[in-house]
Amino acid sequence: MSKTADIRLPDPSRWKALAFIALAQLMVVLDATIVNIALPHAQTDLGISDANKQWVITAYALAFGGLLLFGGRIADLWGRKRTFVVGLIGFALASALGGAAQNQGMLFGSRALQGVFGALLAPAALSLLAVMFTDAKERAKAFGIYGAIAGGGGAVGLILGGFLTQTLNWRWTFFVNIPFAIIAAAGAYFVIREPAGGRNRASLDIPGVVLSALGLVSLVYGFTRAESAGWSDGLTIGMFVASGVLLLSFALTESRVKSPLLPLRVVLDRNRGGVYLSLGLAVIAMFGLFLFLTYYLQVVRGYSPIRTGFAFLPMIAGMITGSTQIGARLMTRVPARKLMGPGFLVAAVGMLLLTQLEIGSSYAGLILPAQLLLGLGMGTAFMPAMSLATHGVEPRDSGVASAMVNTSQQVGGAIGTALLNTIAASAATAYASSHAALGAKNPELLKLQSMVHGFTGAIWWAVGILVVASAIAVTFINAGRPSAGPVGGGSGSGDAEGVEDEFKIPVVAH
Fold first, then answer.
1. Which residues pair with 486 in a beta bridge?
2. Which residues cross the membrane (predicted)?
3. Which one of 47, 147, 198, 365 is CB 3.0 to 4.6 Å from 323, fit for a cystine?
4. Please, what's the largest Cα pairwise distance for the chain?
């Protein structure tokens, strides 16, 4: 079947397929936060030391972040449906292993396996949407739903994690993935029909796989270690240096090999490059906020895990509204930059409100409106970002283009957690030192005030990061609004103003 035929005859089962793709994406995204709530209980049950507890998070982050590009390329090579189903089955088995873990080694190993199969699953899910939804208006609706899940799934994980941990036990934060995965895999197998002619059957770029995986693992581990060991730690610095060398070698390799793992045409397009960069920065701010608000509500305000999870509901509601009611409705009417730029600024205003946090701040008067603004802004910006990241890319590159979206989010999350937590810790220490007199009278009060002062200091940085993300979106992204007709797979197709090809940065062949 020709590409033209694929565009004119969309898959009649595409909306059913979206339901199963969305379910799988929700599973992957909420898994990033659901384990955080359960970690203290798992640590006690399995006798994990404070020094080793970070590996429950780090093992997943390293495998997932390091193998995303490889997973995207596998999706282009094997076929997106097959990769999607294999990723789901593997994720379910890894989750079963984690729930049944009898020692820390089993738990760490299961988290690494979850990361491996998540790296197959996530890019396959997004690239399936990219090739199945070719009409601009339908694409807007589909990516609106996907964007809401990608943005709000982390908060859903906090709610579900709190509920399962408090009412059952920590093991169910792993077991809960199994029904998600089984339903999504069965639905995908019977419903999804991948368009023909979209595979990239070129030989696998083994040097690219090794260099990208090692480079991304070094980068993610560098930021993860910085959080616990400090930025001046020798191994931390060594990881960053190694990452720079490996990723530079990867870029040089990709410009020379015949069948690159990451064709430079994917990232050197100014629109996609702008999306990857602005999205990564926004996620830095978001992940830091999840961390600070969770600690503020549980430690400072004394909320239970379940109550903390429900306290994040306004942000989820804002994201769903921004993504499906604002982003999806306006995406075919205005250029993406006019949604992403203002969206990140609205989120920055919400973040700005949270710089006013104090020990006794009102939830209804401060935290709730701040979350609503954050959710509305992020939802409005995420939706066109997800769509534009794969828009106009050749079908054979849709898997790796989708993997780059997930890579920017994963690296952004690692950076955000480490960078903002380090800033908060430094500010808290400085505050405690300068208020030693209060500590002599009321050490517990000083501890809480120092913690909140650290949070607000780091949140100011998050405000600035979101403003920079907005500026990048407005400056780099120049694609016009998608036309109301079909969106093709060729480069630059579907832009009413025809600017995507015009501003594409050429790649010099070697």
1. 135
2. 20-42, 54-71, 83-101, 113-133, 145-164, 170-192, 204-223, 235-253, 274-297, 309-327, 339-357, 363-390, 411-438, 458-477
3. 147
4. 78
**Distance (Å, whole) CA 18 – CA 139:** 11
CA-nearest of 492, 188, 473 to 327 is 473
- What residues contact 497, with CB distance under 8 A and at least 6 apart? 335, 479, 480, 481
Please name the amino acid found at residue 497: E
Confidence of residue 256 (pLDDT cuts 50, 70, 90): confident
Query: pLDDT tens digits for 463-500?
Result: 999 999 999 999 998 876 655 444 444 433 333 333 33
User: What's the token pair of residue 77?
Assistant: 């090579």
**DSSP states of 396-420 as a string?**
GGHHHHHHHHHHHHHHHHHHHHHHH
Q: Which of 259, 308, 284, 302 is nearest to 415 (CA)?
A: 284
3-class DSSP state for residue 484? Answer: coil
- Kindly state the tokens that stand for 55: 């590996």
- Token pair 């939804």 is at which residue? 133
The position carrying tokens 């169910």 is 172
Q: Are 161 and 305 in contact (CB under 8 A)?
A: yes
Q: Using alpha carbons only, what angle is made at residue 44 by residues 38 and 47, rounded to the nearest 5 degrees? A: 125
pLDDT of res. 495: 37
C-alpha gyration radius of the chain = 22
The full DSSP string for 83-128 is: HHHHHHHHHHHHHHHHHT--SHHHHHHHHHHHHHHHHHHHHHHHHH
Predicted pLDDT at 10: 65
CA pair distance 55, 287, nearest whole angstrom: 18
The answer to whether 411 and 441 are in contact (CB under 8 A) is no
Query: Which is more confidently placed, 460 or 25?
Result: 460
Separation CA 83–CA 125 (nearest Å)? 9
Q: Model-level pTM? A: 0.76
97-135 confidence digits (pLDDT tens): 999 999 989 999 999 999 999 989 888 887 787 777 777
d(CA 42, CA 323): 35
Q: What is the pLDDT of residues 318-334, one digit of tens each?
A: 888 888 888 778 877 88
Alpha-carbon torsion (337, 321, 142, 216), positive or negative: positive
Report how far apart, in Å, the C-alpha atoms of 264 and of each of 258, 269, 308, 404 are. 12, 8, 43, 12
The pLDDT of residue 500: 34
pLDDT at 50 over 70: no
The crossing angle, in degrees rounded to 10, of helices 136-167 and 368-390 is 130
List, in sequence order, every residue forming a beta bridge with 135; answer none if it has no partner: 486
Q: Sign of the CA dihedral 204, 206, 209, 212?
A: negative
**The pLDDT of residue 410:** 75
